[in-house]
Amino acid sequence: MPAVVLTGLTDEAPTSSGALRGTALIINFWATWCEPCRREMPSLERLSHRLAARGVRVIGVSVDADRNLAREFVRAHQLTFSIYADGDKKTFQSALQVKALPQTVLVTADGTIAARIMGVRDWDGAEGERVLEQALSLRRRAGH
């Protein structure tokens, strides 16, 4: 995963992509003007809660030009996973070669990009579980 500085969108302190190493990541690139992105957010929120105990972190990266719109969306939808702004230069988006939204990049704990998922996904369903199992070597929990 490329080394970039990530600016917190709401209360998150700025961090670097390197500081996130050691944790499997589900990085979702989104924007408020992207209707499929907005639809995907509730299932990403639930996914972040389900995977927290398993050492997997969901982070969002807003590519909105207007950070206030993105902040308001996060507040209105009570999103609790970390969300960062990619800034005007779209450094992280460019470094990860994200060309369409929404796009989710799955990164292993050692920083290897394991998968890229184009388009909206239902992270509550069997398909989302299967993708995560394969890419991040996660096993289903009993009863799921």
Number of helices: 4
| Major β-sheet strand ordering | 2-1-5-4-3-6-7
- Low-confidence residue ranges: none
The CATH topology turns out to be Glutaredoxin
Helix share bin = 25-40%
Oligomerization status of the protein chains: single chain
SSE series: EEEHEHEHEEH
CATH homologous superfamily grouping: Glutaredoxin
Can you put this structure into words, describing what you see?
The protein is of the alpha/beta class. The chain has one domain (5-136): Glutaredoxin (3-Layer(aba) Sandwich), CATH 3.40.30. Helices cover 31% and strands 24% of the residues. The protein is built from four helices and seven strands, in the order βββαβαβαββα. The protein has helices spanning 35-52, 67-76, 91-95, 126-136; strands at 5-8, 15-16, 24-30, 56-62, 82-85, 103-107, 113-118. A seven-stranded mixed beta sheet has the order 2-1-5-4-3-6-7. It starts with a strand and ends in an 8-residue tail after the last helix.
